[in-house]
């Protein structure tokens, strides 16, 4: 049945059964594992898992004890199984816990769930099959699309929009004021009103405690298919292109424009008002202060540069102590020849 679901080919006992998942190096009888990276192949011969999903291109060099399911993409197939398991194991919640507050002018869709201590303000529009868990705040004029899930503690400020099939994890804040303050002559700062909103398109997932600021004017835009990790800060008037993925602790300053299909690793920092081309990959802890115009380029370092150039520079930097010793020795020899 598993092989049929994955469109895979079985090698071994086709009647073996499993009841749990396990990492391949920690497998035990009755568990299912996967192997996607060839460098971990040694575990294939050691594992006690009953079933292992592997790529069709993976040709075992030694006998294996487990049953193999050969698929086109082991990682993707395993993810599909986890999704199936998660969906089937979750209790479908509907109805309304108490206490909650729903304004009379709010519009609620069909088959929704509202957890206790949730507040839904005036003129909010909630789509069908939406799951709103406990202690969620939904402000005035907010729109939530169909099949979206808001986990406990999500806060969505007034006038913001969340699309269909989105997932917002606990502690997400959508639409807090952008960081706008005008310096005054007396060294004080005057707050610049932030009158825009945040628009999140369909199939976006946002990790816990990530904050997306409202635009000063217009909209901060998160395009469809974007995936954001935990603890990310996105400033006012930022635009993130379709299917871009951003890892934890990244900070994106105001008015940045990030293209489609980009990948930003952890702790990346982007200065304000810069533009990133489509398909760009930025390594962990990199800092950018200028536009990246070349699509599909890979960058690393602070300030970020071409990945290969950064690696070469890093190698040289590590050798600087030895190089200094050689220079000092050369200077000593030159002094002694005088």
Q: How is the main sheet built?
A: 12 strands, mixed
Percent strand:
25-35%
Counting structural domains, the number is: 2
- Tally of strands: 38
CATH topology name of the largest domain: UDP N-Acetylglucosamine Acyltransferase, domain 1
Instruction: Output the radius of gyration.
Output: 26 Å
The rounded distance between the terminal residues' Cα atoms is 86 Å
CATH class of the largest domain: Mainly Beta
Class from helix and strand fractions = alpha/beta
Helicity, as a percent range: 10-25%
User: Could you name the ranges where pLDDT drops below 50 across 5 or more consecutive residues?
Assistant: none
CATH architecture of the largest domain: 3 Solenoid
The CATH superfamily of the largest domain bears the name Hexapeptide repeat proteins
What do the pLDDT scores average to?
A: 93
As laid out across the biggest beta sheet, the strand order is: 6-9-12-15-18-23-26-29-32-35-37-38
Shape: flat
Q: How many alpha or pi helices?
A: 5
Core attributes:
UDP N-Acetylglucosamine Acyltransferase, domain 1, 17% helix, 338 residues, ten-stranded parallel β-sheet, alpha/beta, twelve-stranded mixed β-sheet, flat
Please explain how this structure is put together.
With 338 residues, the chain is of the alpha/beta class. The chain folds into 2 domains: 2-89, Udp-n-acetylmuramoylalanyl-d-glutamate--2,6- Diaminopimelate Ligase, Chain: A, domain 1, CATH 3.40.1390.10; 95-310, 3 Solenoid (UDP N-Acetylglucosamine Acyltransferase, domain 1). It is 17% helix and 28% strand. The protein contains 5 helices and 38 strands. It has a 12-stranded mixed sheet with strand order 6-9-12-15-18-23-26-29-32-35-37-38, covered by helices on one side. A hairpin with a 4-residue loop joins strand 37 and strand 38 (305-306). The chain is flat.
């Amino acid at each position: 049945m598993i092989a049929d679901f994955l469109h895979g080919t079985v090698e071994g006992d086709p009647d073996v059964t499993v009841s749990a998942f396990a990492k391949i190096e920690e497998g035990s009888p009755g568990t299912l594992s996967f192997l996607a990276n060839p460098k971990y192949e040694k575990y294939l011969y050691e594992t006690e898992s009953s079933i292992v999903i592997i790529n069709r291109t993976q040709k075992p060099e030694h006998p294996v004890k487990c049953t193999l399911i050969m698929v086109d993409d082991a990682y993707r197939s395993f993810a599909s199984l986890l999704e199936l398991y998660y969906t089937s194991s979750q209790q479908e919640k509907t109805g309304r816990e108490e206490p909650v507050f729903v304004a009379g002018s709010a519009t609620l869709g069909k088959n929704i769930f509202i957890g206790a201590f949730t507040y839904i303000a005036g003129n909010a529009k909630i789509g069908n099959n939406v799951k709103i868990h406990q202690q969620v705040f939904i402000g005035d004029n907010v729109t939530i699309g169909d099949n979206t899930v808001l986990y406990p503690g999500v806060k969505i400020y007034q006038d913001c929009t969340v699309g269909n099939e989105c997932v917002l994890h606990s502690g997400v804040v959508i639409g807090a004021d952008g960081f706008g303050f005008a310096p005054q002559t007396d060294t004080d700062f005057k707050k610049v009103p932030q009158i825009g909103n945040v628009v999140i398109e369909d199939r976006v997932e946002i990790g816990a405690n990530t904050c997306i600021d409202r635009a000063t004017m217009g909209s901060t835009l998160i395009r469809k298919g974007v995936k954001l990790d935990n603890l990310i800060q996105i400033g006012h008037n930022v635009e993130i292109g379709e299917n871009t993925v951003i890892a934890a602790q990244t900070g994106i300053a105001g008015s940045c424009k990030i293209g489609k299909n980009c990948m930003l690793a952890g702790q990346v920092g982007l200065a304000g008002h810069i533009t990133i081309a489509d398909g760009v990959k930025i390594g962990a802890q990199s800092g950018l202060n200028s536009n990246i115009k070349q699509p599909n380029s890979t960058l690393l370092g602070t300030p970020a540069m071409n990945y290969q150039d950064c690696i070469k520079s890093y190698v040289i930097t590590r050798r600087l102590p030895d190089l200094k010793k050689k220079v000092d020795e050369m200077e000593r020899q030159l002094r002694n020849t005088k």
